[in-house]
Amino acid sequence: MRAPFVKARPQTHARRHWAATVLAMIAVVLIAVSGCAVIPTTGAVGKSDPLAPHHNEVNVNFQQFAPVQGASPESIIRGFIDSGTGISDDFQVARQYLTPGLAQSWAPDKRTLVYKDSFSVVPSAEKDTFVLKLDVVSSVDASGVLTPARESATESFVVKMVQVDGQWRISATPDGVVLTEATFQTLFSPFSLYFYDPTFTYGVPDVRWLAGRSARTSTAIVKAMLDGPAPYLKGAVVSAFPNGIALERDSVPVNNGLAKVGLTAQLLLETSVKQRQQMHAQLLVTLQKSLNTVTEVQFLADDREVDMGGVSDAISPMRIDSSVPSRQIGLVKNELATFDGAAVSAIPDVPSVADLLPSVPAMSYTGKIFAFSSGVGNQIYMVAPGKQPELAIAGVALTPPSFAPNGWLWSAAGDGSGLVIAVNPNDGGKMGKPVLLTVPWLVGQNVTALRISRDGTRALVVSHGNGVSKVSVTGIFASGDGPKDLTLPLSLVHTGTPTLGVWVGESSFAVAQASASGPVRIEILDLARGPVLMDELEGVQWISAGSGERNINAQTADGIYSNVGSSWELVSKAIRQASFAG
After folding, report:
1. Half-sphere exposure of 368 (CA within 13 A, CB side)
2. Which of these, 122, 131, 125, 124, lies nearest to 158 by C-alpha position?
3. Whole-angstrom Cα distance, residue 111 to residue 139?
4. Rounded to an integer, what distance in angstroms lies between the CA atom of residue 38 and that of residue 234?
5. Whether 268 contacts 245, CB under 8 Å
6. End-to-end distance of the chain based on CA atoms, in angstroms?
7. pTM of the model
8. Which helix (H) or strand (E) holds 128?
9. By CB neighbour count within 10 A (0-12 exposed, 13-18 middle, 19+ buried), where does 191 fall?
10. What pLDDT digit, counting tens, does each position of 98-142 carry?
């Protein structure tokens, strides 16, 4: 299978966005790599069948060349960069370009700059000093946290040279390495680390990019997990592993499917059997989803297996990639109705809502509670069988309602106030008091969509402000009595100016710019691969998504369409604004 981040056309607008997606969405676990070897590229943003994450084994041999006698300072600098692909031997060739002292202290894993295609090396005003300038895509810090660069961003750093035994060597350069997009695409693959939601029910994916070398990947995955979640997930998810616990040795051997994980003995032995069971579930799911070589995990303290309890101590499996029911909620002549993909049905015992001028309805995961915007969109009502509609949320230009798995209902104001509103519809048997969150990073943003993930820990946000369109994923920081804040988001690179957004899977989304007429291409965004544009469809006004990319629906003035094979097929003219649970 072709690597999902490999492209054919050089430096088109889509390519710049596409390559940045890899990095803007993902907190990279850094195993320092670099290089400016140009790798052949193929493929562009376009329609594609769903792709599973591609795990490179990195059998590509990037040849490194030692310094040659009499090389100029610029040649030494370029040789140093070019030899940065020597992952397997801790960059031994790259270190030959440095002075003996710097070769010992240089830390390639402190920072990584990912750049587009080329860089320049120019002399500075200071003697024997040069400035290296890059067109930057992103930067990665020592903990693997990746920060996307703004479009057309550049970065420069100084490299100092001295002569050692008559040969030029680098005497000062920042820690870390640089690598091209192409090299990154060849050496790295996406892996999902799983953390728990606060109820220890759901597994929440934290997609990382690791060097796909089978001998070390298991170790890199475990170390990354022990370091905790990516910044945008901190406070939204939890880890079963205690703070401060670490590998006893820098190795996680896998033999006959068994991964032996030696951990800090004191901290491991202080955990309860239940906590160890949760640790086991968290790590086993992660390794099994990431590697086809792991079938079981064994924890060791001082090289001895720890007590994991008996059958009576077993915990419920971690729930991942939660599916949604196939039934959708929609509107027929201003009344709520369900759609199972073939037939439209009235909802028994649900009173009429036509007088409230409903739009954009939502359905809880139980299928028993419904919500909808009313009138011009400044009010959201809830209704259930046998109960009259009740006002749940009021605000300005509210986004379509969205249910979390725990039953809470969410919306956001679209007036730039940064206001996000959540309410518990069953707070002691009655409608709860709305929780109002003022989210600083949403102030000044006109929010058009806020959708809660199927594990309840994250929200997809579509917004625009100051002429810039944004698609973001944020963590939901909650406590026992409800949500408290939204974390600083992970920005997703996309094309166009989408106004609609829905979850497709545990780490994938569909976005589109609504249009009463004219062609629309729904775009699939994924934390583990580049964007994919679906087939064009005229006048898309609404989208919905069930479990997976083959369950994306689009509404036009003609009705509801489903994507079948390589084309759109009209499946219902009777219902409008249909939505799956959530």
Report:
1. 8
2. 131
3. 7
4. 36
5. yes
6. 33
7. 0.84
8. none
9. buried
10. 999 999 999 988 887 889 988 999 999 999 999 999 999 877 775
